[in-house]
What does this fold into?
Amino acid sequence: MKVLGIALCLTVTFAAPSRAQERSPLIVMYVSTAFSGAWTAFVLYDDGLVIRCDTTAADPKNPFSPPNYASALLSPTQRDSIVALLQPDSEFSSLGSYYDSNRYYGLSMTDGTTYTLHFWLKGEEKVVSVYGAIDSAEGLGSLAYAVAHKGAPRSLLALVREHVKIRDLLSHPLPGQHPWLPDSVDVTLESGQYVGGGSKWPASWPAPGAAGVACTPLHSASRSPIDSVCVLRLPSTQLRRLRGLVSRKVGWQVRIRGQGWGFSYRLPLPADSMWRY
It folds into this structure.
């Protein structure tokens, strides 16, 4: 069994709101990991739309697949009650710009999870990113444990409180919740490190070399084994078929005109360019 050390890093930044959006986020939790990618766990928009991970709909055959989502459209009263619930307190707002718990735990491992909270509640965006465990329920390696036993600043408990509130909110279905899909799915293809195994890419789908498929060759001096990266979109009606290309034997690999490609995909959320990295 591989044992992973946990280090915690926290960054707080402020930025002015970006260009106007038809639907603007108010609160977001974004999660990224070393091995299974990144995803939006929760987002509340100004019109009351909530989109959240639906863990009950996860695909047990493909544990590294992007999450499924569910959504609900809240009334203004319901939206405002969630905003009031998740409104950061003054201690949270006073957190410094960077915390590194390596000084508390004596660790420098990099295989943990990064949690990022975004708030757009008073005309400014506040972003808080934490590397490592947050919730006290996660025990050793969490922020609460670092505060209680490792000399971390007590103000970090404000971040724990925010995380617990969102976690508790996500533990129950929202009123009127139903499965959510975007109109299209973003797909990334990578060539160079695959030898032609995997499922056959459907001939009716766009592929490298076709109009509308953007490909970026990588310089040969790069240490990456990937030669080029191509990005395309598929209608979300093709999502089940796309997921079916994942093979137990060779994983996320496909064959396109005899060449091997690695592939991945994500479900784009409204205005997610405002918080994805």
